[in-house]
Amino acid sequence: MNKTYIIAEIGINHNGSLDTAKRLIDIAAASGCDAVKFQKRNPDVCVPEHQKSLARDTPWGRMTYLEYKYKVEFWEKEYDIIDKYCRQQGIAWSASPWDLDSLEFLLQYDVPFIKIPSAMLTNLELIKASAKSGKKVILSTGMSTEEEIHEAICVLEPGPEMHDYAILHCNSTYPAPIDELNLSCIKTMKEKYACEVGYSGHEFRLGTSVAAVYLGATIIERHITLDRTMWGSDHLSSIEPQGLFKLVSGIRELEQAFGDGKIKVAESEKSAREKLRG
Description:
19% strand, 40% helix, alpha/beta, globular
């Protein structure tokens, strides 16, 4: 079994704090994750007009929804620091662009992949532009029909010029019910599509993500947080530091234990075989 690529999704769980982002990067790097991932938006573009002026209670006081989205957004100053800090910590980073402006912004940096969130799977213009960047495209498929997934993949496979891409099976409920994870879709996708398949999980459990690797997922993405009780929409469905360490070690142990499936006497058994059977 090849090494699984593990992405720690910080997303917006930094709550606009660069210090919190750094602490989460530290945890991801120490646990053995391969990359951390953020989310990048142009709030003026992404927030629907009818929601921009809606009032919202936040830790920073009552403000409009648009003001709140600007409050938790990182810009060039923060990402310059994040880029340098991740290199110092020996971990890669990227982000999910929610609009073309954010994609253009991300391409200033040497990110290893562009992650299309499930919400943007039907934004074919964004997917096409991401593919044209030359970066690997990772596409989450939560809350999507088979037809919608097929249409998105067709954008990534324009004839003979196939782009480097992967799709992640996903349930977009936060947190996702165990009985709706449908992990068997990983095998279905591997059989149906000629690409790398992974899993993006939003459930409470850790074992399900390890099981996803057993089923053939080669990329695992999970949201991480310092504390599930923190204010914000994604914290409850995220993994705390001790959980992330357990998840990564569980995946690495599975990789070691998986083997090649050939029936044989293991090297460690030979002395016992000689002793007990003569």
